[in-house]
Write a structure and sequence with these properties.
This protein has about 575 residues and is α+β, with helices and mostly antiparallel strands. The protein contains 17 helices and 23 strands. The radius of gyration is 26 Å and the shape is globular.
């Protein structure tokens, strides 16, 4: 998604010559050319502040090599050129310029005098409309948010934090809004941001209440401790992405030819099941297209799928996303995620697809779906499943299954229905109910994710990961050994019973926070060269394994995940007992 001055966030594919985007100073700049590049393999460009953005090998970045001794002109390098330089010398460093505040002119909420109270103690997220209001209105929103959630680190008062426990999405939204105001931050965990203020005045302006402002003048130094990190952000990793996407190059009307891209551009999450089906059926897990039905709630969503009727679009040759994809990839999987959120007219359009295996697009061309698998996922009746599933196996009694099917077929909103019309449900080949995942199943998911991480690191930097074998927990030496990395990530030490209701996503978050982030720190701090070997261990290290509580009872210490660089000979020995490497071995 690309931020634009007058239309908010717009997909890159929808931009055309004459449209406005922002340059790095936050000022509008005009698009002079749009050049489709075809399907390209993308890289994930990871920045030192935690942001990531996708780019193909030919994507050009304007960089500097030393952020402390900045020359007047930027150096233009493609991703391919940076990869070549890193292959010759892993010590090479590249820095991108940070953006300045952007001024939206969408007219949204222009008649509202103040938005200070937009974020309160019950706010879970910030809407798109609020993110694209005027500069002063966004500052108002931030002031209200920081008056609620802003605080100073107890151990270091110079650190200004935004802490919203249990509100991951709100923290993400606040971070995006801070970037729109030209303010950088570091994400310390899911619920905490460390604000990288450029001056005491900037920190002062983040608050509205006098008491909070007074604390700023007491705690925040005149010279920012982040002064060397504000203007430029370092590229810390270039990692190949799994998916290939349509690449588009745009030329903008400014001397630097730089423009701002939204943090969520081309970031998609495909469920593991659908990728597995695509791989089994068509030999490629990327033979699929995902539609997030949360984005298909408007009546115009039908046109997005099959194309706009003549006279309703400026592009006379525009086709629908679904129909055009199937024309190019007839042997593929279509995933409609959280389908209960979609506009009902979408399912009317799919009736002929499910019945006859074909549909006419907006240009009257017949599109053949007979070799396409269509999957719809839904959270309808999810609470019924969670409340009534067997605590041990998650299985659902027959009478509860009947209730679930009834909810699926209840399409009347006046009767509390979020389901589908009978004629649509009757055309579905099968309705599959997923039970609540148990810890042993989540452990298998964790092992699959760790296996994927091992593969990515091997392909990108030729670094080999090896994971520790199962060992005994403290006080459970008489039982079968269970403690390894995947087991620990899904155990009660790291995953509460409440998070079990959320499926596999908490496991992914644990892998990011406990494995990927620590790996990144190790690779950067220890200067681990390509071709190295790293041991990831679940255990107790060299510390205590138990302690005495206040009442004198002996308690086990929480095991932790440790990692270190090892020799190739040690790797060969440890690899024999690696549960991730031997995940699919016959037992």
């Amino acid at each position: 998604m690309i931020p634009t001055p007058d239309r908010g966030f717009v997909p890159l594919s929808k931009l055309k010559v004459g449209d406005k985007v922002f340059d790095r100073e936050g000022k509008p700049t005009t698009i002079k050319g749009v050049f489709p590049q075809g399907i390209r393999d993308f890289y994930s460009v990871a920045l030192s502040d935690g942001r990531k953005l996708p780019a193909d090998k030919e994507h050009i970045f304007s960089i500097v090599r030393d952020k402390k001794n900045i020359v007047k002109e930027f150096e233009n390098l493609t991703v391919a050129q940076m990869l070549e330089e890193l292959a010759e010398n892993p010590e090479r460093r590249f820095f991108l310029p940070n953006n300045k505040p952007v001024c939206f002119d969408t007219g949204i909420l222009s008649d509202v005098e103040s938005l200070y109270f937009a974020v309160g103690s019950r706010t879970e997220h910030i809407t798109k409309a609020l993110k694209t209001t005027s500069l002063e209105q966004r500052r108002d929103i931030i002031r209200g948010a920081f008056d609620h959630y802003g605080e100073f680190d107890k151990n270091n008062k110079e650190k200004l934090l935004f802490v919203a426990e249990g509100k991951e999405q709100l923290v993400t939204d606040i971070r995006e809004m801070l970037y729109s105001l030209g303010i950088s931050s570091k994400r310390l965990d899911l619920f905490t941001l460390e604000i990288m203020y450029e001056s005491r005045d900037q920190a002062f302006d983040l608050f509205g209440k006098k008491a909070k402002k007074d604390q700023v003048y007491i705690n925040i130094p005149r010279i920012s401790p982040y002064k060397d990190e504000i203007d430029f952000v370092e590229i810390v990793a270039l990692t190949p992405e799994i998916n290939s996407e349509e690449a588009i190059c745009i030329l903008v009307d400014n001397e630097e030819h730089l423009f701002l891209a939204g943090t969520n551009y081309v970031v998609t999450h495909n469920t593991e099941l659908v990728k597995a089906i695509a791989e089994v059926m068509f030999g490629d897990e990327n033979a699929m297209k995902r539609f997030d039905c949360g984005e298909l709630q408007a009546p115009s969503s039908v046109a997005r799928l099959i194309g706009s009727p003549p006279g309703e679009s400026n592009d006379l040759d525009s086709g629908g996303e679904m129909t055009e994809f199937v024309k190019k990839h007839p042997y593929s999987v279509l995933l409609f995620d959280e389908c209960e959120k979609g506009f009902p007219g979408i399912w009317d359009t799919l009736l002929s697809v499910l019945d006859e295996g074909e549909v006419a697009d907006a240009r009257g061309e017949i599109v053949n779906f007979r070799n396409t698998i269509i999957i719809l996922t839904s959270n309808i009746a999810s609470q019924t499943i969670l409340r009534n599933g067997d605590p041990e196996t998650g299985e659902i009694p027959n009478n509860i299954m009947e209730q679930i099917i009834s909810q699926l077929k209840n399409h009347d909103p006046e009767r509390g229905g979020k389901g589908f019309r009978p004629e649509f449900v009757n055309r579905l080949s099968s309705i599959v109910t997923f039970y609540k995942l148990q810890r042993n199943q989540l452990e298998k998911i964790a092992n699959l994710k760790l296996r994927s991480l091992t593969k990515r690191l091997k392909e990108s930097r030729n670094i080999s990961l090896v994971f520790s074998k199962k060992v005994h927990e403290v006080f459970r030496e008489r039982e079968e050994p269970q403690l390894d990395v995947a087991w620990l990530l899904t155990s009660s030490w790291y995953l509460s019973n409440q998070n079990l209701d959320l499926g596999g996503r908490p496991v992914e978050r644990n892998i990011v926070s406990e494995i990927e982030n620590k790996l990144t720190d190790l690779l950067l701090e220890e200067a681990v060269p390509d071709g190295s070997f790293i041991y990831v261990e679940a255990g107790y290290g060299s510390g205590l394994k138990y302690y005495k509580d206040r009442e004198g009872n002996t308690r086990p210490v929480s095991p932790e995940i440790l990692m270190r660089k090892i020799s190739e000979s040690d790797y060969r020995i440890l690899e024999k007992d690696d549960p991730v490497a031997h995940l699919f071995d016959e037992k």
